[in-house]
Amino acid sequence: MAGKWVKFLQKGLGPGARSSHAIKVVGQKAYAFGGEFTPRLPVDNKLHVFDLKDHSWSVPKVIGDIPPPRVGVTMTSIGNTIYVFGGRDLEHKELNELYSFDTSANEWTLLSSGEVGPPHRSYHSMAADEQRVYIFGGCGNAGRLKDLWAFDIDSRQWTEFPSPGENCRPRGGLGLTVCREKIWVVYGFSGMELNDVHCFDPSTETWTLVETMGEKPSARSVFSAAAIGKWIITYGGEVDPSDQGHLGAGKFSAEVYALDTDTQCWMRLNDAADASEHPGPRGWCAFSAAKIDDKVGLLVYGGNSPTNDRLDDIFFFAPDV
């Protein structure tokens, strides 16, 4: 299997360089929120919108319960509504508010906070199907987590699912996708880079440790991931942490892999491109599945580089699947 990277030119005043932020594509627009330029210092709480047709940035006038600035935040979407959960604020406190953003009305709504729903966390992961928003893991007040929660968008109720058990270590920076009506936990960081895959079936509420085969990626975290058909596509990530922790840059990957969720077989994708068209090694990016010009793929924005410089470029990878 192969695929092609495309780098987008950007028009207008965009969010600028950042990492530990989030982006989500709804229709032909990508909504970016949160992040840092200086380690652990949230940049702003503006919602920046990138038009995937004319490649221009804008900052819409928004109303409602606007979230404060944060890093280590995640986003997902159902229909025209984006959901934002958690993160870490200016005082380095973990957060647990769930917000929605109506892209039609440009309105923020606070859906849950306080004692309701998942405990406070950042650097967790988030995914959704047509009915529920899912949250897994992250860095909590008392260490890393491995809990799975679901928020039903109709009842507006949280459900905590069973724990994956002892063979799944608590982790942050993992890949979380909904693929073939199951929830997949891929790799992550638990004091060390991890290379395991776990699968949760909501219909039976059971976990499975997935024994993967093939061209298996090395252990990694804070990579970009998206479910495309039966495939989980991953790009980049940290393969060796910095001895300075979050203040430094570890060693990053530039590789693209695909996991076939039917056969549990990994494949490294041929993503050859000119240097100017390839994102190169990076992690802590914002990413989202996207459909652009009838091609479904992975949109990647910004992140951290091997030199510890934050990045502000946008790439799209379309696999031949």
Automatic annotation (TrEMBL):
Alphabetical UniProt keywords: Iron, Kelch repeat, Repeat
Biological process terms in GO annotation: glucosinolate metabolic process; nitrile biosynthetic process
Gene Ontology CC entries for this record: cytosol; nucleus
Domain of life, source organism: Eukaryota
Database matches in Gene3D superfamilies: Kelch-type beta propeller (2.120.10.80)
Presence of keyword Iron: yes
Cofactor: Fe(2+)
InterPro entries for this protein: Kelch-typ_b-propeller (IPR015915), Kelch_1 (IPR006652)
GO terms of molecular function: enzyme regulator activity
Coiled-coil region list: none
Keyword Transport assigned: no
Official protein name in the record: Nitrile-specifier protein 5 isoform X2
Organism of this sequence: Canna indica
